[in-house]
Amino acid sequence: MCGIVGYVGKEPALPRLISGLKKLEYRGYDSAGLAVFDDKELCVIKQAGSVNGLETTTQKLCRPNITAGIAHTRWATHGEPNETNAHPHRGCGNGQACKIQIALVHNGTLDNFETLKSLVLKRGHVLRSETDTELLVHLIAEVYKDDPVLALRTALQQVQGTFGLAVLMAGFSDRIFFARNGAPLALGLSLKGNFIASDPLAFRFYTDRMVNLEDGNLGWISGSDYQVVNMNADKVENEVETIPWSLETAEKGEHDHFMSKEIKEQPQVLTQALRGRLLDDGTVKLGGLDSHQELLRMMQNHVFVGAGTSLNAGMISKIFFQELAELSADWESASELANQKRPIFPVQTAFWAISQSGETKDLLDALKTLKQQDLPCFGIVNKVGSEIARLTGKGVYIHAGMEIAVASTKAFTNQLVTLFLIAMYLRQIRGLPKINWHDRLLADLRKLPLLVTEVLNRENEIIDAAKRYAGYPNFLYLGRGVNYPVALEGALKLKEIAYVNAIGYSAGEMKHGPIALIDGGFPTLVIAPKQDDYYSQITTNIQQIRSRRGRIIAVATDGDDEIKNCVDDVIWIPQIDYYLTPILAVVPLQLFAYHIARLRGLNPDKPRNLAKSVTVK
Ligand code: F6R
């Protein structure tokens, strides 16, 4: 959450800072600000609202030939999203408690916020904002003597929590100082100047050469050089890498929103996830797991850990592992697992950490708990080289490409196809006989991208349905078996981007409470593919809703006349094996939520109160 970009060099800094912030805005968009050296004077401009607003203000206030600055787009944790709490933050400037003028931007949160706050107040600092970030400025400025990096090292030793920092210090107008612990930061290197950013996306337009910083790294960049040290002041030589993706992957192109683009990319990214992994002879090859076969063969019990959409993928994967790989499996919410005092699991349990961003704090904390007990953890991650990919050190990338819209879509379907492949792989390496309908199942798996395209081609029907239902304030989503978590996922999409109350439930649980909600003004969306093992039970649930005069939309299999006659609206999906129905059924639910959000006049890419990558607790 939150985005940082900084530039120092020969070229104008402001366009680089603003374009960088626009690229990072998906990570937080409640306020924005920047600090620059204007004729060696440190100036800060910040305000509530979007980067566009900040751009207009800086165009009025700043000289265009400024060549060094740092900038930030915020997702509020401590204190309201207003101008005072926006970054950059400055010290108290009374010349005593703060020994140097500083402007600082921060991603992350300080765990010992209260202790540090009373400490700096006791020492005579004057705080302006309600943020934890401002404390960092006072701590650094207080210990400064003549060496900025030493001041950072000394001050940060008192800090518990996560930070990615970019700092300007008066008297050093040709340098940006930085530090990293638990919040990503990368340097971008170019002949015309150097960058620092929380995501290389911010500087990709200007360079493809970057250095990934590690936890405990700090240092500086100038226009032509950089230095990285560790907390003991030893020099660190991080590898200079070439960014493997082009900027077009992060552009909307002809689409109105990133969410629509990402929904429509699903056939192509599903193909990417299957390529080289599902072989012509029906075997599954997973390079990321091959060298861990021995370990995996011993694992009788598997636990999926994740948050939000990724947890929904984990819930479905539990069924893949149980029913296709004949293994004991379960799931855990990352935030709950992270807080468990003494989590106890059967011996020979493997954990599968599922995350699009690879940065989710709840999942990182859960993984740290598991790693302390030396339990084997595998990553199912989209973002290559991310924290979770590095912490697990083994696993399978889902290859969904960059996901920018806040609501996760293509990552979900690629997580599912990847975990499905893993279930088949585990069956294979454990030497179990092929499941009875193996060939048919794999033929359906191969057809998936084509069938998802078919669903996407029916968008107009989904738009019509969205028009009929956009005015309803409440929805119940129901499914059974593999499609119960799809109901949760569909409801999550509607809540987060259309701000419509949507409750996802197992269809069997409905009669144990939620049925009391049903009346003519409370529609139910039922996922009821014909090939679902639970089809007859679902149709019974549909009858129960009808008898209470509830309106029903069904996601049903092409040609299912039986269902057509007992619901109000049908969203059709093609026939596919039961275990693969979630991947087809979720696509219309993503489109339904997207179009309801649009019809309600909302921007689906930037839902209120949310941001991509939840890097706070
Ligand atoms: C919902 C959504 C979130 C994320 C969750 C975990 O559309 O995007 O629920 O799924 O915050 O994020 P990752 O997968 O990045 O760990």
Ligands (ions, cofactors included): fructose -6-phosphate
Termini distance? 11 Å
Strand content: 15-25%
Q: What's the pLDDT, averaged over the residues?
A: 94
Poorly predicted sequence stretches spanning 5 or more consecutive residues: none
Named CATH architecture of the largest domain: 4-Layer Sandwich
- Overall CATH class of the largest domain: Alpha Beta
Main sheet: strands, sense, barrel: 8 strands, antiparallel
Which class of secondary structure composition applies to the elements? alpha/beta
Count of β-strands: 24
What is the strand arrangement across the widest sheet?
3-2-4-1-10-9-11-14
Q: Helical proportion? A: 25-40%
Query: How big is the Rg?
Result: 26 Å
> Which word captures the global form?
globular
Under CATH, the topology of the largest domain can be stated as Glutamine Phosphoribosylpyrophosphate, subunit 1, domain 1
Summed up, the domain count is: 3
CATH superfamily heading of the largest domain? Aminohydrolase, N-terminal nucleophile (Ntn) domain
**Number of DSSP helical runs:** 20
Summarize it.
This protein has 617 residues and is α/β, with parallel strands linked by helices. Helices cover 36% and strands 21% of the residues.
